[in-house]
Amino acid sequence: MAAPKKGRRQSAPGKPGRSLVFILIALVALTGGMFLSGHSTPRLGIDLAGGTSITLQAKDEPGQKKSAINPTNMNTAVSIINNRVNGLGVSEAEVQTQGEDNIIVNIPKGTNEKQAREQVGTTAQLYFRPVLTVASGEPTPEPSASSSGKDKDKGEKDTPKATDKGDDKTSPTPTASPTSQGRAVTDGLKADATPTPKESDKGSDKDKGAPTPTPSADPATAALQKKFTALDCTDKAQRGKAGDGVKASEQTIACGKNSAGQWEKYVLGPAELNGKDVDDAKATINQQSGSWVVNMEFTSGGSKKFSKTTSKLSQQQQPMNQFAIVLDGEVASAPSVNTTLSSNAEISGSFTQESAQDLANILSYGALPLTFHEQSVTTVSPALGGEQLHAGLIAGAIGLALVIVYLVVYYRGLSLIAIASLLVSAALTYTLMTLLGPAISFTLNLPAVCGAIVAIGITADSFIVFFERVRDEVREGRTLRPAVERAWPRARRTILVSDFVSFLAAAVLFIVTVGKVQGFAFTLGLTTLLDVVVVFFFTKPLMTLMARKKFFANGHKWSGLDPKRLGAKPPLRRTRRATGSAAGPVDPKEA
Questions:
Q1: Using CA atoms, how far apart are residues 44 and 50, in angstroms rounded to an integer?
Q2: CA angle, residues 432, 415, 393, in degrees to nearest 5
Q3: In this structure, what DSSP letter does residue 586 have?
Q4: Dmax (CA) of the chain
């Protein structure tokens, strides 16, 4: 007896229960992670929550041979602008690069738009100012006869702070001796890195902690002295406004952190140099000490200014032999000078690689021929944002309702599987969008809502492809369980090809576009990937389980798989096999 001819290989049923358990565990884990992260709703974009969105475009100044627009400089600019926005007291503001030369600043509702535009739209101001007075960052009490002795003691306790100025403001607690940290600037490797402190230095350190400036560092006006006394550098709002409205040629007050991470306040003299006088700055390792340092190179004009400034500072005592590197009104570092320096200088101290690189970036940024121009400014009121969110939710609900009505009318009982799959897909999408907010700063804006609505149709299309393949097998006369397993391989290929095309379109759209359109592309790509996960790990296993139920297996008229309604024909292949086994091969002419 001849072996039967092998037909198309049938897909194995597998164990559908395991796949459903996997989806359930994933949902529980994502939901638990969502609540543990403290976020129960997705982060809303400016167009839905209300606020101001500013797009800045970087531009090279004319005459530059080499473009200064590169990832390092753009990331440094983002960090500086982010500090500015935070200085306004804004919570959850977003500053991020977009493309090669754009920076997007999203400021939530409750922030003054004019003030925000002034802060983020101007080029960073980098100045080198001589230090006149240093004191603890807290408000200084008014001096009195009874407290003079205590103030003297306090000055003695603050002495180490005056010698920590070679450190970057983000440096950890210094490990070098106070003497070596006081020698924070050297001319290359020629100068002595650990000078011996003089007796006059020790005496001057006692004056550092005095509540009011020393006679030689007396502010130009009584108003400046009053501001210095009342300044509280531990208050973010006061730090941001400390030097507001002060010109480069005027004395000012500022805040900065010492090597121990404590805030200190300064009285600073007129600016001697600015950021354009710096030619380059790099973080390197000193070959002799093995520690991280920052090397600065000045322009020809900057070298002359720096030499003249350091010549004057080297003759002063602590803290008046220090110069402060001031960026946007905040002291980034305040190294001391013990000798006249020229075109090259080295800032050393208790730097880590990260803190040295941060200071080098700040110095380089101040010298960059890079400016930002406002490309667009969008302001949305909270009321309008709420209306747009409400309208988007209504549109999504209408689209989902129409899809459900179609599925119920056309597929009847099979619509239960489709609706359950849609609910699982919606739950996965919601939890992932919520978790991606704090993880990668994903915000749900109006185009992203549109992408989620379009995804309803993409997901429903996958169910329809699978259901129609199953129906085709039932029309050929097969029972439901083998029909499901034979239909799945063909449906699977079609679903994968369709989702691949959708994901490819979303990826291309995300790469070539900027702004809010990327939100649409990202959401479309995310939901397309989730469609594959849901169909493979939920819809197919659930369909396999339902095929074992009498309601579907017997072709109930409300199951959506009624053989009579589908026009099923007798199994022709089975009839031929029976004829051949009874009477031998059938003559083709007789057939």
A1: 9
A2: 45
A3: P
A4: 128
Cβ atoms of residues 134 and 265 within 8 Å: yes
179 φ, ψ (degrees, to nearest 5): -65, -45
- Condensed to tens digits (0 to 9), the pLDDT of residues 272-312 reads 988 888 888 888 998 888 888 888 888 888 888 888 888 88
- Collapse the DSSP code of 533 into the 3-class scheme (helix H, G, I; strand E, B; otherwise coil) and give the result: helix
From residue 457, give the alpha-carbon distance in Å to each of 410, 461, 500: 16, 6, 15
63: left (phi over 0), alpha (psi -120 to 50) or beta: left
Whose CA is closest to 163, among 210, 216, 204, 212?
A: 204
Tokens representing 275 are: 């950021």
SS (H, E, C) 272-308: CEEHHHEEEEEEEECCCCCCEEEEEEECHHHHHHHHH
- How far apart are alpha carbons 519 and 413 in whole angstroms? 36
**What single string gives the DSSP state of each residue in 124-144?**
P-EEEEEEEEEEESSPPPPP-
Per-residue pLDDT of 172-214, as tens digits, reads 333 322 222 333 343 332 333 233 333 333 344 434 433 344 4
59 strand-pairing partners? 371
Nearest residue to 168 (alpha-carbon basis) of 236, 255, 261: 261
Tokens of 276: 């354009």
Given a contact cutoff of 8 angstroms between Cβ atoms, the answer to whether 293 and 181 are in contact is no
Q: Which residues of 64-77 are buried (b: 16+ CB within 10 A; e: fewer)?
A: eeeebbeeebbebb
**What burial letters (b/e) apply to 266-303, b meaning 16+ CB within 10 Å?**
bbbbebbbbbebbbebebeebeeeebbbbbbbbbeebb
Q: If DSSP codes are grouped into helix, strand and coil, which group holds residue 333? A: strand
Amino acid symbol at 215 = P
- 8 Å CB contact between 429 and 527: yes
In 435-549 the beta strands, taken as DSSP E runs, fall at none
Q: How far is CA 554 from CA 17, 75, 446, 477, 559, in A?
A: 22, 65, 46, 13, 9
Helix (H) or strand (E) holding 42: none
Residue 461 tokens read as 């299309």
pLDDT tens, residue by residue, 404-442: 999 999 999 999 999 999 999 999 999 999 999 888 878
Give kind and range of the element (H or E) at residue 319: none
CA-nearest of 499, 584, 482 to 534 is: 499
